[in-house]
Fold:
Amino acid sequence: MQHVKDFLNPSYYFRKIGEVFYFTCKPHPLESKTPDKIWVKDLIVLFFIGEVLSVVAVLPKAILEEYDVVEDLNNILGLYQSTWRQWKLLLIGGLMAPVFEEMAWRLNLHFTRINLALSSGFMSFYILGLLISEHGVTNLFAEFYTRIMLAWLVATVSYFTLSVNKVLDTVQGFFQKNFKWIYWLMIVSFAMIHLERYQNFGLVEHYIIIPLIILPQLVSASIFSYVRLKYGFIYATFLHILGNTYLQLIFS
Structure:
């Protein structure tokens, strides 16, 4: 009964927002545990918070475009939603993108040799997408086999390099010493990579409003990173999949 009351209690939602905000300001490594019933409730609440805040975060950019303060940035997702079939939108946007992005930006927040190696591989997948294919970040199928082979190669080399104890100890020491900076870098870089989807975006023309453009991704990345460390990688990925699938179904 208390769980139902919490769902209907606005102060509970504000408390969760405060927890995410505080942790984002002062991040530190956490030992993830299997969620109990209370934590499952928290995950549901965090999902609703993430969806609502992401929609609110879109408004400043939308207002600027509506009143011609800036030109329409022309999100490539609009083209894909009108030309791709529903199954492809759900496969890429609802499943593949969340899994790939969590592997690249959140898996490494809990330091292990395999986590860092896999994150490095998936990060290289996105970096190569930026370099060799137009909108390769948004369209995961662009040059897919070339990019996935590079990701596999980078992950393999990273894994065996980290098998050297001296290298592993050095990297782990750096990670522990600079954890908060790495945490913030993962959030900001995750948000920045989404600028690639805007066809009319120019760094010189729009640098002042970049924080407004990427605000929805900053919000979602903060929530996913918090969930990844407190509850585990699987739960952060699940929330990401759920959120993306929900948006795909609503706007397609």
Notes: The CA atoms of residues 94 and 247 lie 8 Å apart.
